[in-house]
């Protein structure tokens, strides 16, 4: 839950012009904090300010850039103003929250950290088709300073402009690539038991793996809108399994 006290955790997120919380990676941590019912306040930081913000707080980067050497500073990040310590990377944050708040619901149940690491790697490999739809839509919704940064990094990754990457509505390419996305998300949906809402089973047994998936599925809803044809498709695909997940996670939004 969000809170304005000076002693609560600080959660660093990335703003947009019109979307509110939008980043799939920071959504994982937003879900996690609300799931554990930990008081926090959100501070919004534009992309070019992420590195100096984390350096000022003495929060170490969680990864390196493509050269394997240069530190890469990313969000989400959490900072505890009482302990004067912080952490970045959504999975590392989940571990940190479980360790420091042991009397709250577990994000990573005992003995499942290896599973969560494997789940994250597998899930990341199943969302290739999503990026051509979501990266451009996110680019066009960001504030100017973040838009320039995000555009540059994503165009370096893709080798084309965001406008060229995006499959235009009504085109054959759009139909083909949207079908690929349906197939990829079908593999993810298949990891869930036939009658289970959450990956660990049951209707009330959420864990961090569900927040990993939820962060990216809600990204589509946020970017295209609740009433869009795109979201209506995703919500009903594969027997509505991923749509049910997002509905079940609503109380943690």
Write the layout of secondary structure elements.
Elements: E1 9-13, H1 24-36, E2 40-44, H2 50-56, E3 63-64, E4 71-72, E5 77-80, E6 85-88, H3 90-100, H4 113-124, H5 128-139, H6 144-158, H7 162-165, H8 172-189, H9 208-224, H10 229-248
Parallel strand pairs: 1-2
Antiparallel strand pairs: 1-5, 3-4, 5-6
Q: What is the CATH third-level topology name of the largest domain?
A: Glutathione S-transferase Yfyf (Class Pi), Chain A, domain 2
The helicity comes to 40-55%
Q: How many beta strands in the DSSP annotation?
A: 6
User: Could you spell the SSE succession in H and E letters?
Assistant: EHEHEEEEHHHHHHHH
The SS-based structural class is: alpha+beta
Largest sheet: 4 strands, mixed
CATH architecture of the largest domain: Up-down Bundle
DSSP summary: helix tally: 10
Average pLDDT rating: 94
């Amino acid at each position: 839950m969000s809170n304005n006290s000076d002693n609560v955790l600080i959660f660093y997120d990335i703003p947009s012009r019109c979307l509110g919380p939008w980043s799939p990676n920071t959504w994982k941590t937003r879900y996690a904090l609300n799931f554990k019912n930990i008081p926090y306040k959100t501070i919004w930081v534009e992309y070019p300010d992420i590195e100096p913000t984390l350096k000022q707080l003495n929060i170490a980067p969680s990864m390196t850039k493509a050269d394997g050497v240069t530190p890469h500073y990313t969000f989400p990040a959490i900072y505890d103003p009482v302990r004067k310590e912080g952490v970045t990377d959504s999975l590392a944050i989940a571990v940190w929250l479980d360790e420091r708040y042991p009397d709250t619901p577990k994000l990573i149940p005992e003995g499942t950290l290896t599973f969560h690491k494997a789940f994250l790697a597998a899930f990341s490999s199943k969302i290739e088709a999503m990026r051509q739809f979501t990266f451009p839509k996110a680019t066009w919704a960001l504030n100017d300073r973040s838009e320039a940064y995000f555009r540059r990094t994503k165009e370096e990754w893709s080798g084309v402009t965001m406008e060229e990457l995006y499959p235009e509505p009504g085109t054959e390419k759009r139909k083909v690539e949207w079908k690929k996305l349906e197939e990829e998300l079908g593999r993810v949906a298949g990891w869930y038991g036939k009658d289970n809402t959450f990956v660990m089973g049951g209707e009330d047994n959420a864990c961090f793996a569900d927040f990993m998936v939820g962060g990216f599925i809600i990204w589509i809803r946020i970017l295209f809108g609740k009433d869009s044809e795109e979201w209506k498709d995703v919500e009903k695909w594969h027997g509505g399994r991923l749509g049910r997940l997002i509905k079940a996670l609503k109380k943690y939004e």
